[in-house]
Amino acid sequence: MAAISESVSGPNFEATLARHGIDTLTRKSPSTLQVNVGKLCNQACHHCHVDAGPKRTERMTRATAERVLEVLVASPRVETVDLTGGAPELNPNFSMLVEQSRALGRKVIVRCNLTVTQEPGMEWLVDFYRRSNVELVCSLPCYTAENTDRQRGSGVFDKSIAALRQLNEAGFAGGDLRLDLVYNPIGASLPPPQAELEARYHDELASNFGVVFDRLLTITNMPIARFANQLRATGSDSAYMSLLVNHFNPATVDALMCRDLLSVGWDGRLYDCDFNQMLEIPLGATAAATIWDLDDVGELAGARIATGSHCFGCTAGAGSSCRGAIA
């Protein structure tokens, strides 16, 4: 199956690759299995590409979660299970997925919004993170209350700081328990240089709040879902897409997250990345449509990756991935 060149109306990503002498994207043997357990979240952030929120009902079932683990057992080259949502902790199968993945010797990343640890009935989370030795990747779009609350809702910053202090007290950051933060721009702009912004975050959070963390990951806002609606509402959608296209960086392509990651949706459907999942762009390879259609995810090595105009978001400037800047 040919790669999909247009997920939404916009510039042709495949044509841009060709102009730079870059072949159509294909997958290596996946080392990361990223699992979106649903769209339920205790927040409704303005930039959210998942369009998650408190009223969403999409949740991964026990049967699907168990099938994910069966595939993980049969996929020895998968080193990391990356759990996301929504707030993944709100899925009733979250603990089971973490515990079984760790029992299989895999690293587990939990993409946490921080404030979920402050919700009633979730007091157990911080200790569970610690006992399970998970790697936390936590959203904090700014080191000031004004900017964070503007993007994520009133009071979110104070709750996030409270959560970070709890995590620090539990041993996260600066040792064996990893705690990374995620920055994404407040508006329609590219992230600043990651290293420079990380230094500023370290200074501001330590001096003002006594909070420490390991790394800062900068991620570009993708022009899809809730953020795309904002762009259209303000008439800045064309300008933002032009910004992404004009800053295309061919040096980012080889390290794109889709090259060694497989994305599993809450209903078990498979995608080339989390963004394709939200746009419902099918897996570029035709051999497997759902988690029940394959055993070892290594079967997808060499398969074509479906692309679209949103892919310019991952290749603009220093690049953007679940691991932060690329180049």
What structural class should be given to the helix and strand makeup?
Answer: alpha/beta
Choose one word for the global shape. globular
> What Rg do the Cα atoms give?
19 Å
Strand order of the largest sheet: 6-5-4-3-2-1-7-8
- List the uncertain runs: 1-9
CATH C-level label: Alpha Beta
Succession of helices and strands: HEHEHEHEHHEHEHHEEHH
| Percent in helix | 25-40%
CATH third-tier fold name: TIM Barrel
Write down the overall mean pLDDT: 92
Q: What's the main sheet like?
A: 8 strands, mixed
CATH superfamily: Aldolase class I
Strand tally, please? Answer: 8
Number of helices: 11
Strand content: 5-15%
Label the CATH architecture. Answer: Alpha-Beta Barrel
How many separate domains make up the residues?
Answer: 1
Please report the distance between the alpha carbons of the first and last residues.
Answer: 30 Å
Structure summarized in a few sentences:
The protein has 327 residues and is α/β, with parallel strands linked by helices.
Strands, helices and their partners?
Elements: H1 13-19, E1 32-36, H2 62-73, E2 80-84, H3 94-103, E3 107-112, H4 125-132, E4 135-139, H5 145-152, H6 156-169, E5 179-183, H7 194-209, E6 216-218, H8 225-233, H9 237-246, E7 261-264, E8 270-271, H10 274-279, H11 312-315
Parallel strand pairs: 1-2, 1-7, 2-3, 3-4, 4-5, 5-6
Antiparallel strand pairs: 7-8
